Amino acid sequence: LLGTVPIEVLLALRFTLAAAFLFLFWLTQRQRLPRGRDFWLAAFSGFCCVTLYQLLSTHGLRTVPSGPASVLVDTMPLFATLLSVVLLNQRPQW
Question: Could you tell me the pTM of the whole model?
């Protein structure tokens, strides 16, 4: 069954289910949603960092040999740190 279902469909189901659970959790906590610009920044960040990452990495891992793919996956924290220093002016701490 999994071989016949496109990976995009599985990812969409995964994120829909996760969003439903997070929405129910949000309702029980009675928290306010971000407003204005913060809402759109959070939505854009979620789309880029979750959806695009999953789609692109899944397609990439299917086309790249396992050795280089594991190096890329294992160095993601390093890339995230470097991007936070360059783009957000963060100061990493040990």
Answer: 0.54
